[in-house]
Design brief:
Number of strands of chain A: 9
Distance between the termini of chain B: 153 Å
Strand content of chain B: 35-45%
Number of helices of chain B: 4
Largest interface: A-B, 72 and 44 residues
Mean pLDDT of chain B: 80
Strand content of chain A: 25-35%
Strand order of the largest sheet of chain A: 1-3-8-5-6
Mean pLDDT of chain A: 80
Shape of chain A: elongated
Number of helices of chain A: 3
Distance between the termini of chain A: 68 Å
Largest sheet of chain A: 5 strands, antiparallel
CATH architecture of one domain in chain A: Sandwich
Radius of gyration of chain A: 28 Å
Low-confidence stretches of chain B: 5-26, 225-231
Oligomer: heterodimer
Helix content of chain A: 10-25%
Shape of chain B: elongated
């Protein structure tokens, strides 16, 4: 089939994608430049970008835990078997510390992974509370432990600046009205402490 | 138009791409660390001590209580104790459980029980009832020897004799809804016996301590009297008013004792007390402080701390006449009858007879009694023969009190009509006879006795 003749004087038609390239490039550049000015939140967008005459390196977010604020921090810590016994209205506590070993401030959070299911595990109520020191970690905080282990998510924990250390208090109890009578039992758990980068 | 569409599409692609990239960046910037551990639950435990102090208690009608004794509940668990559940079952004479009242009250950390609960929390109920044991005012901590004291008292009424019961208490400690897995139990045996019928209380006889150093353990009315045979008085009632003998056991003291004896009260009725009366079979068991009584007729007897009792016998007077009442004696309503058959109303010929029964209620010794009849009221008795009614109505105008003949139809041992001449009075249509004024003869009545009286009324 013979090619169609162009109509004299008519503009040569362009493909739709090509038509969009111009504005796309323009907007993309604008966004990149704009995000570059927002700081660390979008550092990943900056990690490979090089601006003329300057360089930007990525930060890091990391936390570690320890039994005591002056102790050795690591990614895990064993609290052992908490001293005392839980029962209706009776609480046990354990103090530990979390340190921001990264370069960015973080918002602390905590959740609890229960061990093997048991009557005691079902009866337990937990809270992770920020305290000013280990001495403030007492059974007087038992009223804050109202949530079952599996569904617990800490709220209200503070932000922690880089290199900062925060004392935390783990509180475990059994409601005074509990009828499980899970006497003389034991239950294990793991507290998962998280640090999520926040703007400084 | 196509250029505008292309522009919008381009912007949209960039925004979507930008947001997607941003989301990935946020997820990457978090870190975590873990703390692991374990927790143990405590246990509830309790031990009980002290119930055994009630073991062997013997209850009588005059000593019908056991305790209070201190019972301690000790925390043997690893959790606080906040309350107790107490259940009791009994072996032996089950019916006794219904007669026994259990009193329980919290006594804190004190082991000394008052005779009755004060303001502390307490519970009282039958021994076979569901026991609501008082909770401690504060939880008992799971520390060594931490405990709560309670006072436990049993009261039995009435007290049958010769029976026994062994209550067994099962105790469960609790912390909220958690309960001790093992229960502590305690049992004891109570027995009952009839009180010594000869035993009286200071309230029944005018003998009481005269100083703060003296106590009286027991007062009995033995008989050293006319025969000297103690069995002469097996039920505690004097056979005759001729002799009144008393044995008084004074409490153990570290000093001399002093006891007041009111000789104006029954059963002595105004007889004087002498040192000779305090000498039984040649043993002077006490001496008079003064040969004369005080203004109230009270003599004082004293003795050294080494003397644990005194006794005396006096030759008495006729029983003192006391007013009728539920604790002294009762008089049945006077009825009108034939003089030969009390159950048949007479058709009057020359006389009619009146009948009544006196029943004694006063314990241990005889008292005098008095009975009355209102002839006018009796003449209006329903169903009475008109001639008899008229006869009784007219008697007060002509019949002197002393003209009525009194006699005994029947009586129980000891309850008799006075053998002498009783006092007779007339006040309008009311005629009264009192069993008094007769020295050394019986005219009294005591608990468990009765006398049927017959009044023969003839003009």
């Amino acid at each position: 089939m013979a090619p169609a003749h162009r109509i004299a004087g008519a503009r040569r038609p362009r493909h739709l994608a090509l038509t969009a390239l111009g504005p796309l490039a323009l907007v993309s550049v604008g966004l990149i430049v704009g995000f570059a000015g927002t700081g660390g939140t979008y550092a990943a967008w900056n990690s490979s970008a090089k601006l003329p005459g300057a360089s930007i390196s990525t930060g890091s977010t990391a936390i570690k835990v320890s039994n005591t604020p002056s102790g050795s921090f690591g990614s895990t810590v064993s609290l052992g078997t908490l001293a005392g016994h839980v029962g209706p209205g009776a609480a046990v506590v354990a103090a530990f510390a979390v340190k921001n070993t990264g370069t960015t401030p973080v918002a602390l959070g905590a959740s609890v992974a229960p061990g093997a299911p048991s009557a005691l595990e079902s009866a337990l109520r937990v809270a992770v509370v920020a305290v000013s020191g280990a001495s403030q970690c007492t059974s007087a905080l038992s009223s804050k432990a109202v949530t079952p282990l599996a569904s617990y998510s800490a709220s209200g924990l503070p932000h922690l600046a880089s290199t900062g250390i925060q004392n935390l208090c783990l509180v475990l109890t059994v409601p005074a009205t509990d009828t499980s009578s899970a006497q003389g039992a034991s239950a294990s758990f793991t507290v998962n402490v998280t640090g999520t980068q926040v703007a400084s | 138009m196509r250029r505008r569409l292309a522009l919008i599409l381009g912007v949209a692609l960039v925004v979507v791409a930008s947001l997607g990239a941003g989301g990935i960046a946020n997820a990457m910037w978090s870190a975590s660390a873990t703390a692991s551990g374990a927790v143990t639950s405590g246990s509830v435990g309790v031990s009980v001590s002290g119930f055994d102090q009630l073991n062997g208690a013997t209850l009588t009608s005059s000593a019908n209580t056991a305790g209070p004794v201190n019972v301690a509940f000790t925390n043997t668990g690893t959790l606080p104790l906040t309350g107790f559940g107490v259940h009791v079952t009994s072996t032996g004479t089950q019916s006794l459980a219904d007669s026994i009242t259990l009193q329980v009250w919290d006594n804190g950390q004190s082991t000394a029980c008052a005779s009755a609960p004060g303001t502390t929390s307490s519970w009282s109920g039958k021994l076979d009832a569901a026991i609501a044991w008082p909770s401690p005012p504060a939880s008992i901590p799971p520390t060594a020897s931490a405990h709560e004291n309670y006072c436990v008292k049993l009261t039995m009424s009435p007290v049958p004799s010769g029976l026994s019961i062994t209550p067994s208490f099962t105790v469960t400690g609790s912390d909220g809804a958690w309960h001790s897995g093992t229960s502590a139990s305690a049992a004891f045996t109570l027995t009952t016996k009839a009180a010594d019928p000869r035993e009286v209380t200071p309230g029944q006889i005018g003998i009481s301590p005269a100083d703060s150093a003296t106590t009286i353990d027991r007062i009995t009315l033995p008989v050293y009297g006319t025969t000297g045979n103690e069995n002469e008085n097996p039920d505690g009632t004097m056979i005759t008013p001729s002799w009144a003998c008393v044995y008084v056991a004074v409490g153990t003291t570290t000093s001399a004792w002093k006891v007041g004896v009111n000789m104006s009260a029954p059963p002595f009725n105004g007889v004087a007390l002498t040192n000779a009366d305090l000498n039984i079979n040649g043993i002077q068991t006490g001496t008079l402080v003064s040969a004369s009584p005080d203004a109230n007729g009270v003599y004082y007897v004293h003795g050294p701390s080494t003397q644990s009792y005194f006794s005396f016998c006096v030759q008495g007077r006729a029983p003192k006449v006391m007013s009728p009442g539920p604790t002294t004696y009762t008089v049945s309503p006077v009825t009108v009858g034939s003089c030969t058959a009390s159950t048949k109303l007479p058709t009057v010929t020359s006389d009619v007879c009146l009948y009544t029964t006196v029943t004694g209620a006063y314990p241990h010794f005889e008292i005098g009694y008095t009975v009355s009849a209102d002839f006018t009221a009796l003449s209006k008795t329903s169903g009475l023969d008109s001639a008899v009614s008229s006869y009784l109505a007219n008697l007060p105008s002509t019949l002197a009190a002393g003209s009525i003949q009194w006699s005994t139809v029947s009586s129980s041992a000891g309850g008799v009509y006075p053998s002498g001449t009783p006092t007779k009075t007339k006040n309008g249509s009311v005629y009264t006879m009192s069993s008094t004024g007769i020295e050394a003869t019986s005219g009294g009545i005591a608990g468990g006795q009765f006398v049927d009286l017959k009044w023969e009324v003839a003009q």
